[in-house]
Amino acid sequence: MKRKITEETKKAWGDNWKDHSVEKVLEIFRYTRVQRMLNTFITVLPEGGKILEGGCGLGPWMIKLRSMGYDVTGVDYDPVSVEKIKTYDKSIPVHVANIEKMPFEDDHFDSYMSLGVLEHFCEGPQSAIKEACRVLKPGGTFIILLPYMNFMLRAKYPFAMLKRNKFLRKILKKDDKAFYYEKYFKVKEISRLLEEGGFKVEKAFPVDHIFSFVSFSSMFRDKNTYDGENSLAIMLSDLLRGIFPWQTAGSSMIVAKK
Q1: 102: CB partners within 8 A, 6+ apart
Q2: What integer pLDDT is reported at residue 110 of this predicted model?
Q3: I need a labelling partner for 91 at 20 to 30 A (CA). Which of 13, 166, 231, 237 fits?
Q4: CA–CA gap between residue 208 and residue 215 (Å, rounded)
Q5: Interatomic CA distance for residues 169 and 154, integer angstroms
Q6: Exposed/middle/buried for 108, CB within 10 Å: 0-12, 13-18, 19+?
Q7: In this predicted model, what pLDDT tens digit does every residue of 142-199 receive, in sequence order?
Q8: How many domains would you assign to the chain?
């Protein structure tokens, strides 16, 4: 059963990226929410050294950080996505590999970015965490971004599960579609797994509040963009995050040291 879920997750991600170009996804850096996330990453990324992004997809974060002078290498298990990155810029060091077993020596990187990846392992992220520990130098920084079950997502979750039901989709004559596995970790739970895997958690905090609204309803999206937010999403998230920082967070960010 786990193998079936894993294969469907891989297919879902392949389907997600197949119709998009690198140039298109780089548009995200014009969005307010992504600009804020970039500023957050810069505050937690150590200056200098080699950085790895595990599960980079079409590589927007890797490409953006490299344009800012950071030495970033990427890894993804989807060969089509990796080929698109190489076509965009053949000088970018990006590899086809599973983050549970990567083609790097021990103690190779100073930092490792995992942005929305560890939640997709149906058997748990322990193997990926262990591999992250292996490739990071002693004292290296592990930066993890995970989706957070905020109150809007919790309200929408039952309906999202119904949309995934294959029997119901067949009755309603909806196209067959692959959906990726996703687990919503509590901070205490992922912190425990990180510590068991050789890391010491330094801090965990809520981020990406605007995306909570964007993912909740199309009324908060800018229809003229690939995946952007409108001014209403920005206004409401700015108002509520000061009152309910975790309850309205789109993601949790965890910073750990080897």
Answers
A1: 54, 75, 95, 131, 135
A2: 97
A3: 13
A4: 11
A5: 22
A6: middle
A7: 999 999 999 999 998 877 776 777 766 677 667 777 777 899 999 999 999 999 999 9
A8: 1
